[in-house]
Amino acid sequence: MPGPELTFLQDGRQTADQVAGELATFLSAAQQSIDIAIYDLNLAGAAADIVRSAVKTAASKGVAVRLLYNVDFPNPIPVPPPAQPDAAYIASLGVPTRPVSGIPSLMHHKYVVRDSGTDAATVWTGSTNWTIDSWTREENAIIRLPSPALAQEYSRNFGELWDTARVDGTGKYDLAGVPIVSADAPLKAQVIFSPGRGRRMSHVIADRIAHARRRVRVCSPVITSGVILGTLGDLLHSHASHVDFKGVYDRTQMAEVLNQWRVDPHAGWKGPAFQSITASLPFASKVTTPYSPTSVHDYMHAKATVVDNTVLTGSYNLSHAGETNAENLLVLDSAPLADQFVAFIDAVYTRYAAVPASVKIGS
After folding, report:
1. Backbone φ, ψ for residue 20 (5° rounding)
2. Cα distances (Å, whole numbers) of residue 242 to 214, 216, 223, 232
3. For residue 38, what are the β-bridge partners?
4. N or C: lower Cβ tally within 10 Å for the chain?
5. Cα atoms in the Cβ-side hemisphere of radius 13 Å centred on 32
6. Residue 338 in contact with residue 309, Cβ under 8 Å?
7. Can you give the pLDDT at residue 79?
């Protein structure tokens, strides 16, 4: 069994058919089961056909396939608005599916558990939805981790969502690190699920940043978690100010968040804090297309933090709202994986640091 595998997506650097092919290869290797939890599923053309064929072929071989997706989000969130998965396409897959009501927040996962309960069990997760824009116009990360123990933890989370069809009440457990099959040095992964342990997600990331010794990379569409904003602010004045730092975010989305903060008496401090941090630390930002139902979705969508040789990645961005979503966050202590994520984030940083920002933050 191979070790961890990474795929990094950048705006305009790969085709939808290529990503669909990777996903189809992963699904086609299943022998017993495939459990899919996906926030947004909107595919078209050849990419849609490739994925549909892989799902239907697996099911025809006797593989048990189930699919969860998000629906009916009732409350306002910052940006962008909730996705609307393609119900007709989902029905065309011909496998058991279940919509999960966004109560109180989003079913925001993007994971697949393959062959859980077997020695070949593997998890596919990361920031990447199954849409044409996600695969061609956004920055995203996909990680595949062979690990029966990790797959069991994701299966537990999937089972909660499948049985209740609700976000609320899932993920209320603490998990120890579990082994990952790796040809390199021994690797352990810890996974944290929200909403059950949502507050812990932001605190784990903040604590790692606070104790950085060598390097920090932050890559998130938005940065709205109070504890993470506070910790980044401390970097400006603490012993860690010498740490090699780079950060990337979505400038358009953060401009919209700042406008919302101005009229929120509980978040008044966050705007000045964010502006100070991004002006003083090396941050680059992607100017993206403002959301509309018909616009291209070209978000800076990757969600990863690297601290020294630890990677924290998954579906969770550095947001307060994410703490109440159904999210997953992996904590991976691995120098080789950290180096690969740093190279990706640095490439995104370099690309957007060279582009003049046309969206003013705080105007």
Report:
1. -60, -40
2. 8, 11, 22, 13
3. 69, 110
4. C
5. 9
6. yes
7. 55
The one-letter amino acid at 297: H
Rounded CA-CA distance 363/256 in Å is 11
Q: Which long-range contacts (C-beta less than 8 Å, at least 24 apart) are formed by 71-77? A: 71/99, 71/100, 71/101, 71/102, 72/99, 72/101, 72/102, 73/102, 73/105, 73/106, 74/102, 74/103, 75/102, 75/104, 75/105, 77/105, 77/106, 77/321
CA distance 34 to 68: 11
| Cα separation, 93 vs 85, whole angstroms | 13
DSSP letter (8 states) at residue 201: H
Contacts (Cβ under 8 Å, ≥6 apart) of 186: 179
Q: Per the structure block, which two tokens stand in for 296?
A: 């291209």
> Is residue 106 within 8 Å of 167, Cβ to Cβ?
yes
Domain ranges across the chain? 5-353
Whole-number Å distance between alpha carbons of 270 and 267: 5
pTM of the model: 0.95
**Angle at Cα 76 formed by Cα 321 and Cα 81, nearest 5°?**
85
DSSP one-letter code for 265: T
**Distance between CA atoms of 116 and 148, rounded to whole angstroms?**
7
Q: Average of pLDDT values for 164-170?
A: 94
In whole angstroms, what separates CA 336 from the centre of its chain? 20
| CATH architecture of the domain formed by 5-353 | 2-Layer Sandwich (3.30)
pLDDT digits (tens, 9 = 90+) for 43-66: 999 999 999 999 999 999 999 999
* Burial (Cβ within 10 Å: 0-12, 13-18, ≥19) of residue 183: exposed
H or E stretch at 332: strand 327-333
